[in-house]
Amino acid sequence: MNSSIKMLSIFTITAFLAAGCGSSNSAEEASADEEKNNGSSSETVETTETEEETNSNSHNHENNHDHDDDNNHNHENNHDHDHDEETEQIYNGYFEDEQVEDRSLSDLEGDWQSVYLYLLDGELNDVFSHKAEQDEDMTEEEYKEYYEVGYETNVDRIVFEDDTVTFHEDGEAYSSEYSYDGYEILTYDAGNRGVRFIFERMDESEYMPQYIQFSDHIISPTKSDHYHLYWGDNREELLEEVTNWPTYYPSDMDGHEIAHEMIAH
User: Fold this and answer.
1) CB of 166 within 8 A of CB of 159?
2) Confidence class of residue 83 from pLDDT cuts 50, 70 and 90?
3) pLDDT averaged over the chain?
4) Residue 52: is it exposed, middle or buried by C-beta count within 10 angstroms (0-12/13-18/19+)?
5) Residues in contact with 253: Cβ distance below 8 Å, sequence separation at least 6, in sequence order
6) How far apart are CA 201 and CA 232, in angstroms?
7) What digits encode the pLDDT tens for the residues 35-54?
8) Facing residues of 184 across strands?
9) Distance in angstroms (rounded) separating the CA atoms of residues 19 and 54
10) Is 96 left (phi over 0), alpha (psi -120 to 50) or beta?
11) What residues pair up with 187 in beta bridges, in sequence order?
12) What are the C-alpha distances in Å from 208 to residues 165, 176, 177?
């Protein structure tokens, strides 16, 4: 082989090797750049995921907060609902002995009127009609007759002021002071129960009864909105009275308002 051919061959091989090395370095650099870029991209994804997780947690916290508020709201509603149910049960005569608490005449403080005259003049007829619709065992007229016996009284007004009780009867007023004498729980034939809160006369009086007993479907200290009153001179015999229960509502109410309240109950 002549020298010129030999030199050409060496030059060709050298150029080839140089080109190969350049390609390898470029590839390695490209690979490094790609790895760098991939690494940066991976960090960005992790950051985004972290931000999304943080946002998601924040959102969940807000949802939990709202949910807690809703639960609190529902709890209050449930509490009110349970309370209403319990009050209704007590009003209907279903309660435990330990729920009963002593009461004072301050629960009756005020000026009260008998509903008997409203019955006689027909202003309570809607009440008896409503009861007959709710319970077909008795007609409207039968209800009226039943309540006429229950409401009958000559004491058309009663005023409670501190420990003093004043009966108004036939245009005359009679007063005495009374003190608390405990309560009695009565069980009725229907299976429900009632509580009589009893007060004994503390002075000598020719006109006022020795005992008064009130029942208002409430069994713990609470201001009455109406009540049934029993009175007489024998404590035990009075507890047996279950057919005549004179009923009193605030004196500033008219017959229509009283009828509306009765129907609401």
Assistant:
1) yes
2) low
3) 79
4) exposed
5) 113, 261
6) 10
7) 333 333 333 333 333 333 33
8) 196
9) 52
10) beta
11) 193
12) 9, 7, 10
Please tell me the predicted confidence (pLDDT) of residue 256. 97
In order of 55, 146, 174, 263, the CA distances from 43 in angstroms are: 18, 87, 95, 74
How far is Cα 65 from Cα 62, in angstroms, rounded to an integer? Answer: 5
In angstroms, rounded to a whole number, what is the distance separating the alpha carbons of residues 262 and 253? 12
Chain centroid offset of residue 197 CA: 26
- Amino acid identity, residue 193? R
Q: Which amino acid is at 243?
A: T
d(CA 23, CA 17): 10
Retrieve residue 198's tokens.
């009893």
Give me the pLDDT at residue 111, please.
98
3-state secondary structure of 42: helix
- Say how far apart CA 199 and CA 185 lie, in whole Å: 15
Helix or strand or coil: residue 170? coil
* Residue with tokens 């709890």, as numbered in its chain: 75
The structure tokens listed for 156 are: 């058309």
- Give 195-217 pLDDT, tens digit per residue: 999 999 999 998 999 999 999 99
What digits encode the pLDDT tens for the residues 118-128? 999 999 999 99
Q: Which stretches of 205-244 are assigned E, i.e. beta strand?
A: 211-215, 227-232
